[in-house]
């Protein structure tokens, strides 16, 4: 048994302080705050600043952007103090690296998938493989075909898209990702996390982690 296995868990689209407090209690690794203009879970800076204060020490605060202007990204960094950035749009390496904050880069795995994007953003902490098609906003709640993930890319990645408590055990046990990212799969409504689903999601990831690899 690989006792050291630890799949990182990111709860994204957090909008309520109580949900963040529970996520921290459950031992997730990262909390995602959304600033993408097209998202129903988008926060303004004042809301995000208040939620950021709820996050326990040692848990990453991820600020998610999608083609936001550089000045706005910098303002979020200055006022919200995220420990990681996440870029979900057409941001290139120069833009993503310009802020001096570690970052994740989303890769669209829906539609026609090219392997080339997996070789970009070499300085990203990890890639986030999501089920949206190129140009889409992500957060669709649908999974993509996991067999399309290249096994020889050598890149750390978070698996996203359509994950929920009923399939995350299978996902971790099949794909062995560096981390998993969930939003709608633990919700009762957009931005409103469900306590029972949050607890069970974490339990299922840790159950998968307990198996031999």
Strand content: 15-25%
Number of strands: 10
Side-by-side strand order of the widest sheet? 1-2-3-4-5-6-7-8
Fourth-tier CATH superfamily name: Aldolase class I
Structure description:
This is N-(5'-phosphoribosyl)anthranilate isomerase. Belongs to the TrpF family. Residues 10-203 form the N-(5'phosphoribosyl) anthranilate isomerase (PRAI) domain. One of its GO terms (molecular function) is phosphoribosylanthranilate isomerase activity. Keywords: Amino-acid biosynthesis, Aromatic amino acid biosynthesis, Isomerase, Tryptophan biosynthesis. The protein is α/β, with parallel strands linked by helices and 213 residues long. The protein has one domain (8-209): TIM Barrel, CATH 3.20.20.70. Helix content is 27%, strand content 22%. It has helices at residues 17-26, 45-52, 70-80, 93-97, 168-175, 195-209, and strands spanning 8-11, 30-34, 60-65, 84-87, 103-110, 126-133, 157-159, 179-182, 187-189, 192-193. It has an 8-stranded parallel barrel with strand order 1-2-3-4-5-6-7-8. Strands 9-10 form a two-stranded antiparallel sheet. Helix 1 runs parallel beside helix 6 and helix 5 (168-175) packs parallel to helix 6. The termini are close together.
């Amino acid at each position: 048994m690989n006792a050291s296995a630890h799949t990182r868990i990111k709860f994204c689209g957090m909008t309520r302080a109580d949900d963040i407090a529970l996520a921290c209690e459950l031992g997730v690794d990262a909390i995602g705050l959304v600033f993408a203009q097209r998202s129903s879970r988008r926060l303004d800076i004042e809301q995000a600043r208040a939620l950021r204060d709820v996050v326990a020490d040692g848990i990453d605060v991820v600020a998610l952007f999608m083609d936001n202007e550089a000045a706005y990204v910098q303002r979020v960094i200055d006022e919200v103090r995220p420990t990681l950035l996440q870029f979900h749009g057409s941001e290139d390496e120069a833009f993503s690296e310009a802020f001096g904050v570690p970052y994740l880069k989303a890769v669209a795995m829906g539609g026609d998938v090219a392997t080339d994007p997996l070789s970009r953003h070499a300085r990203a902490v990890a890639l986030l493989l999501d089920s949206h098609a190129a140009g889409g906003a992500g957060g669709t709640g649908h999974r993509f075909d996991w067999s399309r993930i290249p096994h020889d890319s050598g890149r750390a990645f978070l698996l996203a898209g359509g994950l929920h408590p009923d399939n995350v055990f299978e996902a971790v046990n099949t794909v062995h990702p560096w981390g998993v990212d969930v939003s709608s799969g633990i919700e009762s409504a957009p931005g409103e996390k469900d306590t029972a689903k949050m607890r069970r999601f974490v339990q299922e990831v840790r159950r998968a982690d307990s198996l031999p690899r």
